[in-house]
């Protein structure tokens, strides 16, 4: 008699509401516009403010790393430059396993507990963290 073990499946990611799914879709599209000529990590991001407006951005690399900006920081800057001061949620599409500390700090500047969805290049959300 043999014992059969069901195949293990990857851990399920967070369940997203429709508006959060839109953030991931927009971030995925933004990632395609990333400027990474040296093969740097390409990311796309989207943030939604409390008025329901969405801002998107992509990684902008630079030969001098201190002049580069991540997708999430660029999206937050775009939102803040447009007058947004409070955010409902954010999403980043990346190959990285976790959000960068600087990105989380930028988001936290505008409030604690802002949901951040991290998704792979395939658009599947892997994790949910907060600022």
How would you explain this protein's 3D organization?
It is built from three helices and five strands. 36% of the residues are buried. The protein has a single domain (18-130), classed as Cytidine Deaminase, domain 2 (3-Layer(aba) Sandwich), CATH 3.40.140.10. Strands 2-1-3-4-5 form a five-stranded mixed β-sheet. The model is unreliable at 1-10 (pLDDT under 50). It has 131 residues and is of the alpha+beta class. It is globular. It starts with 17 loop residues before the first helix and ends with a strand. Helices cover 25% and strands 22% of the residues. The longest helix is centred in the first third of the chain and has 14 residues, at 18-31. This is Cytidine deaminase. GO terms for molecular function: catalytic activity. InterPro entries: Cytidine_deaminase-like (IPR016193).
What are the main properties of this structure?
131 residues; Cytidine Deaminase, domain 2
Topology:
Elements (H helix, E strand, L loop, with lengths): L17 H14 L12 E6 L4 E5 L12 H11 L5 E7 L7 H8 L6 E5 L5 E6 L1
Parallel strand pairs: 3-4
Antiparallel strand pairs: 1-2, 1-3, 4-5
